[in-house]
Write a structure and sequence with these properties.
single chain, alpha+beta, 14 strands, about 35% helix
Amino acid sequence: MDCTALSLRRVAERVTLEAAEYLRDLPRPDVVAVSTKSSPTDVVSAADTAVEALLRHRLAELCPGDAVVGEEDGGAADTDTIWLVDPIDGTVNYVHGLPWYAVSVGAVRCGVPVAGAVAEPVSGRLWSAAVGAGATCDGRPLRVSAISDVALSVLGTGFSYRSQRRVGQARLVAALLPRVGDVRRTGSAALDMCSVAAGWLDAYLEHGTNWWDWAAAAVIAREAGAVVRVPGPPGAQPPDEEARTYSSSDIAGLGADAVFAAAPGIAADLAALARACGAAAV
Ligand code: LIP
């Protein structure tokens, strides 16, 4: 298969749309019937498992031999092109009936996301991007906000399923809250970064997410003009900070597993503020 970023984008769009349609028709689970993983709040439903199985089946048909790493069934990142799949990003929202969740499929090459798609079952929106080819929502070009004052910015963030990590995250958000315009915690890293791409949020910063949460949306945000920093691939010797940071290194020092995306007018100032508020120690 042609493995250019554009072809990877087309595959990601196709399989996320199919999976979102499949998920839309599944019965929503009873919130008390779901099982849990890393903690009592880290829920997984039969829908998560079924949607990931569909994504794996379709990727095996369209891109035979490519490695797939997924939230529910893991996988070895051992081929040139690696597919990162999150069957339901925003699982807690999904099981509670809060209509803000998405199917996310990203393609990674040499440890860096190069294409991806995020499909929303409820709204039907399809977000996608490929390196060098721009980012779109339902085919319309995306552009980040033109904000230049951190004190007026709306910052998206999120919290770990592990309560002890939340102590540091709560401390960081408490320190940032008086210094930014407002904070949003929507429950989906993928949709938070798509929101930055659309200018709905001015920035996003979260620690402790997984590769599959942000692989697709990192490309979408970057191609929409955001300054983006993502962690290196799990387990591998991460490339140097410059390689991981799609832009200048003045957004380094936010913490090894920090995911950051911000409009260029505030990125450096927000990163400096986050460092001053202890982001590296979260
Ligand atoms: C979620 C992330 C979100 C984070 C949640 C959870 P999931 O992913 O998208 O940003 O704050 O704790 O990790 O578990 O719904 O795929």
